[in-house]
TrEMBL record:
PROSITE patterns: VOC. It comes from Nakamurella endophytica. Residues 4-114 form the VOC domain. This is VOC domain-containing protein. PANTHER family: CONSERVED PROTEIN, HYPOTHETICAL FUSION PROTEIN. InterPro entries: Glyas_Bleomycin-R_OHBP_Dase, Glyoxalase_6, VOC_core. SUPFAM superfamilies: Glyoxalase/Bleomycin resistance protein/Dihydroxybiphenyl dioxygenase (SSF54593). Pfam families: Glyoxalase_6 (PF18029).
Length: 117
């Protein structure tokens, strides 16, 4: 049996807006941009992607699944994401090495510390 991780589906109130925001901050490309379905990927032929689909209700609780991003420079990436419209979020993390942020629709994600040498 063979499986390929195709994508993660993200519920969104504004799927085109949120998809394009993520494409911009990740440096990814939009591969599908249709009503009710916008997919972004690292490159057109590279998986996995993020697929944004519309939902009528707003996000109300902490995500059960989130992205962890590991940059070379955590401080620079946190500043860049904040400048792009992310916000800092307290999910009870206390004193940890990562920074919890939320995208424009409130979906949490983490900017991890730089990789160890």
């Amino acid at each position: 049996m063979s499986l390929v991780w195709e994508q993660i589906v993200v519920d969104a109130a504004d799927e085109p807006g949120l998809a394009h925001w993520w494409a911009e901050v990740l440096g990814w490309v939009v591969v599908t941009d249709e009503p009710g379905e916008v997919e972004i990927r690292p490159a057109p032929d590279v998986l996995p992607g993020l697929l944004f689909t519309p939902v009528p209700e707003p996000k109300t609780v902490k995500n059960r699944l989130h992205l962890d991003l590991r940059p070379d420079d955590q401080d620079a990436e946190v500043r860049r994401f904040l400048a792009a419209g992310a916000t800092r979020v307290d999910v009870g993390q206390q004193d940890v090495s990562w920074v919890v942020l939320a995208d424009p629709e409130g979906n949490e994600f983490c900017i991890l510390s730089a990789p160890r040498a």
